Amino acid sequence: MRFFLVDAFTPSAFAGNTAAVVLLDAPADPTWMQSVAAEFKHSETAFVVTGGEGPLPLRWFTPAAEVDLCGHATLATAHVLGELDAARSVSVEGGGGRRVGQVFSTRSGELACRAEDGWVSMDFPADVPVASDDDPGISDTVFVGRGVSDILVVLGEAAAVRGFKPDLPTLAKLDTRCVIVTAPGDLDGIDFVSRVFGPAVGVDEDPVTGSAHCTLASYWAARLGCNELVGEQASERGGIVRMTMFGDRVRLSGQAVTIASGELHV
Asked: If we measure between CA atoms, which residue out of 248, 243, 240, 249 comes closest to residue 227?
C-alpha cells in the first residue's frame, strides 16, 4: 500500500498542515487504520479506496480517533490523486456551476473536489454556529457558539488569538472535537485569524484545519456581510484558506505540496 505525506494549505514545503494519505484497493479494518494513524502521528491520516466504481470512499483518523470531517487531509488526498491521475473524474456541482472533479464518499456525505490554477477547491457543508453557554475558560470573549463538531470562541483582537496560551487540560474536558479561537484579521487581505485546539482527539494544536473553516466561514460571512473570505490560521506553521459561501455549502480552497512517499509493509 502506497502512502504519501503532504503539506496542505500551503504553496511551500514544511508549512501548512501535514497529512498522511494511504491508498487502498479495498476497504480496510478500522482498528488497523487507527493503528496506522497513531504510527504516523500527524493530526489526520486519510485512507482512500481507489478501486471499484462510484465516489471514492474516504475516511480520516487522528492519532486517537476517527473524525467525521477533515479538510486538510481531503485536500491532500485530492492533490495526491490529481498528481497520480488516479481519481475518477466526474462532473461535480458547486459554487455556481458544474465542473470536472472528484467525489469522495465520507461520514459527512459526498464531498466534491476540483483542481484549478494550482489550487484545490472542496465543496463542504456550511456549519453555522449557534450561541451556547459552554465555558472554555477563556476571558474577554465576544461570542461563544457551537457548530456540528466544534466550539467557536470569538475574541476582540487578532493579537489575542496570536498570543493565546491554551489551558489544554480544561479544553480536553469539553464535549467537543476542537475549540476554534478567532478574531478579525490584522493584515491586508486577511478577513480573520484563527487557531484550533483539539486535545480531546489527540491534537493539541492543529496547524491548519479545513473543516473548522466551515464554521468560521459561516460566522464571518454573516458578521462581515460578504461571501468571499480569506482566513489565516495563525499556528506556528500557519496557512491560508480561501472560502466562498453559497447557500448551505462552503467552498474551501488551498494549495498543497507532496513531501514524501513510500510503502506500508504491515
From this structure: 243
Q: Are residues 111 and 151 in the same domain?
A: no
Same domain, 87 and 106: yes
pTM, entire model: 0.86
- Structural domain boundaries, residue 164: 130-250
Q: Is residue 215 domain-shared with residue 258, that is, in the same domain?
A: no
217-237 pLDDT, tens digit per residue, is 999 999 999 999 999 999 999
66 is catalytic: no
Strand partners, 125: 249
Catalytically annotated residue among 39, 44, 93, 205: 44
Return the CATH number at 216: 3.10.310.10
For residue 92, the Cα-to-chain-centroid distance in whole angstroms is 20
Residue 52 has pLDDT above 90, yes or no: no
